[in-house]
Amino acid sequence: MSERKAIFITGGGSGIGRATALYFAKRGWFVGIGDIDALGMEVTLDQIGNGFSYMVDLDVRDRAAWDRALDTFSTATGGRIDVMFNNAGIGIDGPIVDNTVEEIERCLDINLKGVIFGAQAAFPHLRKTAPGSALINTASAAAIWGVPNLSVYSATKFGVRSITEALDIEWAESGIRVASLMPGFIDTPILDSVTSDQSNMSGKQQLLEAGMEVNPVEVVPEVVWNAVHGNDVHYTVGKMAKRVRRAARWFPNRVRKEMKAAGASMGN
């Protein structure tokens, strides 16, 4: 088995996935990325540029494709995968009564089933490199408290939170750490894709107009690194997510009121 540690990242063609790939590569890790965006993955690998990187076309909704992707990546690394970063996800916005069946099923399939399939496929690889291996799942601050006009998205992220907590216990005997990220609003292409029928502004512009915190994507990889090497189950990203998590525990009615106000300011 190779001595160089290896991480596989879904959604590695842009956003959090790309930023995390670059961060781990700079620290000497062999980085593999999976995505349906081949051009985006090529850009990520070009930016890494050290020869210890690998890309594979991966639709996280395809269970068999997961096994193929991780098996080939393990071969490329010399037989090891130390971290599986279940990061791929999409947004879906608007009142739930306006969401189409196709939109809902796609969000559920990518954000929730994709994480489940990734965990299943990664387990035998992570067990080989345990103790010290880790499964990291991208949840959201929307897994702390449901967000208006993002109800389906929030549901998927609560599911990711639940899976993380369950596997943290289930996989403890195998020596595999399991943790989630709970980012607030991060400046990624997903954020720009969230719009309102009542506004011509992008999701980012609407959030800024409403006084919300939008963090640059570069703040996320260090939190991923800390999740891989830490002992907590959930890791918030950004001041807003940290505040909401604390308030949801001690002042839930306050969070409820703030979410209602945020929904009103966003045109809910």
Automatic annotation (TrEMBL):
Family membership: Belongs to the short-chain dehydrogenases/reductases (SDR) family.
Source domain of life: Bacteria
Stored Pfam families: adh_short
Keywords assigned by UniProt, alphabetized: Oxidoreductase
GO molecular function per UniProt: oxidoreductase activity
SUPFAM superfamilies xref list: NAD(P)-binding Rossmann-fold domains
Protein name: SDR family oxidoreductase
The species this protein was found in: Qipengyuania oceanensis
